[in-house]
Amino acid sequence: MQQDINGLPWMSPATKQQALAKLHGIANKIGYPDKWRDYSKLEIVRGDELGNVDRARKFEFDRQLSKIGKPVDRGEWTMTPPTVNAYYDPQMNDINFPAGVLQPPAFDPKSDAAPNYGDTGGTVGHELTHGFDDEGRQFDAQGNLRDWWTEEDGKEFVKRASCISDQYSNYTIIDDIKINGKLTLGEDVADLGGLLLAYLAWKDDTRGQNLEPLDGLTPEQRFFVGYGQSWCGQTRDESKRLRATVDPHSPGKYRTNGVVSNMPEFQQAFHCAG
Ligand SMILES: [Zn+2]
Fold first, then answer.
1. Residue 221 pLDDT more than 90?
2. Which domain, by its residues, includes 60?
3. Does residue 138 contact residue 147 with C-beta atoms inside 8 Å?
4. Is the pLDDT of residue 121 over 70?
5. How far is the CA of 227 from the centre of ligand 1 (A)?
């Protein structure tokens, strides 16, 4: 990402310096927290779901209240280790990958590098890019809401980001419902930036290696298939309609097609017409 930022023709050295400070300030949290949370005071009773939920909510509420007046715990996670997901937190400036997302079918240690970079590499790049999307870019390396962009560079960012929101606003989710490209902008930017970074990282990691086709697919094709497979899924029509209004993520189909249609590397890999 440092290489990527340094290579941006439109960003001034002043903003680049701030961006790199932010990049180097990002904490990488992988697998599970350094310190386990103490649940010993939470009472779980077999056969009493309502009571369990009630006690668990009170337990969590008290935990949140007890933070008041204390320093921020930068080791805290807001996802549990088995969660199959990942996140960037702008106020903590950290990227978090629970153990659950670092296993097959996402990350497969037995697989060759290409699909792992397409899938998990894309996820890592996605969370990194969140630090610099329309929301994340408003926070600095310490997680403070502070504008560190020159006015001109801020305008250039908005101009470029609007290409993405215009692109996604053209995609139909169901019936006559289209993606709200302003709602999904941060996620769409993170998807594109993420896969670009994953591709750069994969090429860097395998430089000088003679990568062979496997299962009838070239390494480049396997990279993109790995990415596409991470978004396979089924959603009911009712859920599609609901999510169109509230979910900041585009549907999986466009998280795939919207990204690869912006990558000449994909066009090359699959010999698509220009
Ligand atoms: Zn995201």
1. yes
2. 36-74
3. yes
4. yes
5. 15
